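User: Quick sanity check before I run a bigger batch. Here is a single chain. Can you write out its predicted 3D structure?
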Amino acid sequence: MVTVSGVSMGQQSICQGSSLLLGSLAGVLITMAGGAIAQPTATATDLLPLNPNPDPLYLPSRPDQVKIDLDRPITLNEAIELARRNNRQLQILEAQLQQSRAVLRQAEAALYPSISLQMGISRTDSAAIRLQNAQLPPPLRVNPTSNTWTSTVQLGYNIFTSGQRDGSIKAAQEQVRNAELDLQREFEQLRQDVTNAYYNIQQAEALVRIGEAAVQNSQISLRDAIARERAGLGTQFDVLTAQVQLANNQQQLVQAQSQLQTAQRQLAQVLSLNDKANVRAADPIRVVGEWKLSLEESIALAFRNRVELEQQLTQRNAALQQRRVALGNLGPQLVAGGSFNTLDSLTDSAGPRWGYTVGGQMNLTLFDGGVSRASAAQQESAAAIAEAQYAAFRNLIRFQVEQAYYTLKSSQENIRTNEVAVRQATEGLRLARLRFQAGIGTQAEVSNAETALIQAQSNLLSSTIDYNRAIAALQRFVSGLPLTATP
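Assistant: Done. Predicted structure follows.
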């Protein structure tokens, strides 16, 4: 309780206000120096309630089916695992990879001969024979009906295709490789997206805690201002200033809570969570590691690792193989084949008879109006486009690494600067309260000190999150590095 005794406003308010702000700092920022508390790792069974409905066509139709009744904290590694299992775009690319492999098997079928079997049975009642029988004496008449059974086995093989068969197979192989690379690229991008979404939740949760501490401190300042006015030591202006500060902090708290809810639902969308589930960040906010590679080493490693570059090469190679297929239409095509057939009349006593056919054929297109060469020209242009995209993406990779690297270095420097600023702002608020309660300071000074501390806290929080995002970006742009380790 605030007491009024002369110029002493009660040291309880000073201690209470300082403890709230320092408590906020301890809960939000103390782990930045690496003193993170170990979080228990959930098993796959623990994460099962977060998984979506296994039916991809499931569509909730009632409010109770989308009402959130499960809210649990997860670590970043758990979030990545959930995304790996449940992300819909990843599932689409996995299906497309299987589709590409089926196309390859279809193209490889041309390496083998084709074999077909035809069988048939028929019954014939001839009107011509019946007419003939009507004109003949009975001894010369024949049976107008007959039952016949036939079977034919055919075999065919393309001996020479002017490169079409080989080109189709190699083009399909390149497409399979491209689909594999696309799946890898999507997973690496998904890791970064999940990481950034997770950091958004961390930042929003920390801003909510800072906002709650700021509101509580503003309430204390307002009580002090009211007590001083009642004691004749303060003014109505000081009370109004404290009320405005409290209203401003309450508004910022509401905005932070809204940002937190949005960040949680964004992560839920990326993870394809259960419609009734929500998640919070279990990992503390801390500097995740140190990037030990130089800028030049990072760029060189990115050039070697990025799957996007190899994807452009596979697209170029596939286009060149499709060019071979198109030009193969103008070359000779050699086909060999044969058939074996049997015929048996079921209405006589003679046994079945058999026969066979073997032969070969050459096909050569003398003129097709330029269709094949036009198709080949299209594939040549596609290959040239892939080469240009390769060069453009190489430049983009360098820029991405440089941008993330510069952000990392600036954030690293900002962390050191903001740590000092938080300590100074905390001490400044303590002194401002002491001056105000001693009657030699104003409420405006306390409000300004509170605002400065909140700003310093937010800056330290932002610089730490920016540092972690830069680490995640470098790991994504260099490609293939685990998110929890640095080179």
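The radius of gyration is 39 Å.

User: Great, the batch can go ahead then.
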